[in-house]
Specification:
By secondary structure, the protein is α/β, with parallel strands linked by helices. It has helices at about 1-40, 50-90, 100-110, 125-135, 140-155, 175-180, 200-205, 235-245, 260-270, 295-300, 315-335, 335-345, 370-390, 400-405, 405-420, 445-460; strands at about 165-170, 190, 215-220, 225, 255, 280-285, 305-310, 355, 395-400.
Length: about 475
Amino acid sequence: MYWYYIIICVCSGIFCIGLILFLKRPFLLLSTSAVKQLDIIINTSLKETEKDRLLLANLRQLLTHCLIIFSLLILIVLVSFFPVYLYSVIKPAEKIDHSSIYFYLSMIAGSSVLFLFKKKTSDYSYWSKLLHTIILDNYSIAKYLFETEKRVFSKKGGNAKNEFIVVTGLARGGTTALTNSLFDSRQFHSIRYSNMPFLMAPGLWKKIYNPKKGKEKERAHGDQVLFSENSVEAFEEYFFKVFLNDEYIEESSLNVHLINEHVYTSYLQYQQFFREPKLNTVYLAKNNNFILRYLALRNYNQDFRVFMIFRSPVSHAGSLLRQHKNFSMLQSGDPFIKSYMNWLGHYEFGLNQKVFNFGQQKLWQDYDKDTINFWVAIWINYYQYVLSLPEDDLLYLIDYEDLLNSPEKLKAKLGEILNFNFKIEDQNKFEPARIRDNASLVDDQLLKMATGIYDELLKKKLKIDLVCLTT
């Protein structure tokens, strides 16, 4: 009889392995298709004919996934329990046990094979990936969540403010370090990792998930920058992707664009979703794509401040090249990383890299993305446009070297500008990863252009030499 219990143990293991290996992806596709159907139904911007077409097309996918799951489930059950059937044929006189303690212990022993699949291959579990896909990949649902959050917020007496602060610049220029240096929950509110993936309804999500203090770990960039659930991050671009329906995003570029008054007022309301009740804090955002709509927002608002950080072109380009190779490899190994970055509007590097289209000369077209010249051309494109912007007393150019070498003075100067009483204390100097000196590999003409732009930025940068430090 013990052979029977061994067979039950093996069959249970086969059944569990079959569910994990063969039903995981079909179930994800079924779940996302079902939510996509809802997203299409509540999309008020679609014409009825277009909505009907999309609903029918998605319904076909939904039914296909259902059929696949049903067929696979039947196949898994047949394969899993065939040994039991075979045993009963070989020993017809033996009574089949299906209710004793030995039977259940055999099933539990076989099911323990699931522990072999416990090892995580990324920062996101299967269920976390499913939740992110369902919430972030459906813009109509995102807008519905926004409107729901807005109604709750208005009942609490929340009011939008014209005053807010944006830290921006070309990626890998020090925006994360500057934001982290500035952020003080008594002075600012901002979007944090804990708000993911319900970026459009952080208050509702907080009632379900509200971590107090998470363990810090190094982010995927491999640049020694640590983050936790309560860290501030560049997530607000998702708001603009939703409200503009990705209209400014093309296959290989991000375009400068306008926004209408509804989007502007909704943006101000959105900022307040992240403010703690009864605290009169100011919204602080980190957004490397802010340059795309800077002029459009300035037309509506003369009060917000922008801290635009810049870095020497060759070292900046070297850092971008390093991360491009790093994320290209990560995204090849885990496609979810690419989807995640697309949802959040992070197109700075990797397989989904897109350039900023400012209507200028496209210098990067002459170079391969795996060369330093491409990224120097990207640097030129970005900061050449920055220098072409109209004079603005509320746009401050911040030197990356000041952030590295004099973080206390820089913070004190920004405190003066904002009229904030920052607590100035000794700070650990930001230590970026060592970047190989690639100057000798840069095209002479590119290097000359980049150096000229960098010199102009240095002339216009925020001066911190005369700052007096107080504790």
